[in-house]
Design goal:
The protein has about 400 residues and is an alpha/beta fold. It is built from 16 helices and 14 strands.
Length: about 400
């Protein structure tokens, strides 16, 4: 059950809060002033801290500020802090919230308000923790693993182009990691705190691509039962990643070109332009110059997108990176599944380095996962022969 620290110089208030919250199943620690409370808050991990404001030696606001600064410097986990006061004023409440308090409640304490605030604060802390875990998982998938000259070249271009607003065209075969490149550019850009919206142009039927990208108005076609914002609007202020753009219809290409030229879009069924501020990244496994020659891709759009070209090498062109990739996937897969970490023998590594990888990194990861599932604690070259080919 959640652990709560109560800091108050009035014994009666401390004991009352302790009795109420313990009855609800929480574990409670007590502190008689801000100084003792700060020491306890930094020595133990709490799910919530209640602190009075007016106290001797160190008041609640001083305690809150010192606590948050110490947690920030140490990198420890921060508990939400709720301020309680018998002298509640709007000014005091504003000061508390500006200092980083989760909430502010006044004495005499209302039981329902107390229990509701407790639940909300603890739920908030759980959500923050879950978000951190999810971000860690996402970041582990968006790593560019490798030390080969080919991958270092890609990494160098990303470092230079990410902080700019330049459009980037990412090329390479399926499974090479074009999506990873796009995510790294976004995460290292000034738009990183905004959303990155992804569109797989190959997965959307040609008759729906315009609605998907630019949105539509109610009644613009049979199934348009309400107004809908498209991907350009959803990505406003952030990044739009157009994956497999070589599969986009010529009609949609014309509208994308206009959006890039004028920084505005028009929903299907409307003639009202909508301003958008979007950085566009595009990727394709096709030779767009050949597509242009064959009349399937607009040359003017190609030049709009191809400000900074990044070619992601095939795995067969960077086989020195295979051991690093295997170790990365082993750690990632075993951690995700809660399995004991396994290892590959030198011979097994060599066997995987020697084979061809037409499916590139995606195929390698699938093979590593298969070997982890079907083999013992140490994966041998015999396992590779039996399950990895």
């Amino acid at each position: 059950m959640a652990k709560i620290l109560v800091i108050d110089d009035e014994r009666a208030i401390r004991n009352t809060l302790k009795d109420i919250l313990e009855f609800e199943g929480y574990t409670i620690d007590l502190a008689e002033n801000g100084k003792v409370g700060l020491e306890k808050a930094l020595a133990t991990t709490y799910d919530l801290i209640y602190t009075d404001i007016k106290m001797p030696e160190m008041d609640g606001l001083e305690m809150l500020q010192a606590y948050r600064q110490a947690v920030k410097e140490s990198g420890a986990e921060e508990a939400p802090v709720v301020m309680i006061s018998g002298h509640g004023t709007v000014e005091t409440a504003v000061d508390a919230l500006k200092s980083g308090a989760f909430d502010f409640i006044v004495k005499p304490l209302d039981l329902n308000r107390l229990l509701l605030t407790t639940k909300h604060a603890i739920d908030h802390k759980s959500l923050v923790q879950e978000t951190k875990v999810l971000r860690k998982k996402i970041n582990s998938r968006n790593q560019m693993v490798g030390e080969s000259a080919e991958i270092e070249k890609v990494r160098s271009i990303i470092e230079k182009v990410a902080p700019t607003e330049a459009r980037v065209l990412i090329t390479g075969a399926n499974g090479t990691g074009k999506e990873v490149v796009a995510h790294l550019i976004h995460e290292n850009s000034s738009r990183a705190k905004k959303v990155m919206v992804e569109v797989n142009c190959a997965a959307i039927p040609s008759e729906l691509i315009e609605s998907e990208l630019f949105g539509h108005t109610k009644g613009s076609f049979t199934s348009a039962i309400k107004d809908r914002a498209g991907k350009f609007e959803q990505a406003d202020g952030g990044t739009l990643f157009l994956d497999e753009i070589g599969d986009m219809s010529l009609a949609a290409q014309a509208k994308v070109l206009r959006a890039l030229q004028e920084n505005e879009i028009t929903r299907v069924g409307s003639d009202k332009p909508i301003k958008v501020n979007v950085r566009v990244l595009a990727a394709t496994n096709k030779d767009l110059k050949k597509e242009i020659a064959d009349g399937r891709f607009r040359e003017d759009l190609y030049h709009r997108l191809n400000v900074i070209p990044i070619h992601v090498p095939a795995l067969d062109d960077r086989k020195d990176d295979i051991p690093l990739l295997i170790n990365h996937f082993v750690e990632q897969i075993c951690q995700e599944q809660g399995w004991k970490t396994k290892s590959f023998s030198v011979e097994a590594m060599a066997a995987l380095q020697q084979r061809a990888w037409p499916g590139n990194i995606r195929e390698l990861r699938n093979v590593v996962e298969r070997l982890i599932i079907l083999s013992g604690d140490v994966i041998t070259d015999q396992d590779v022969q039996s399950f990895g080919m």
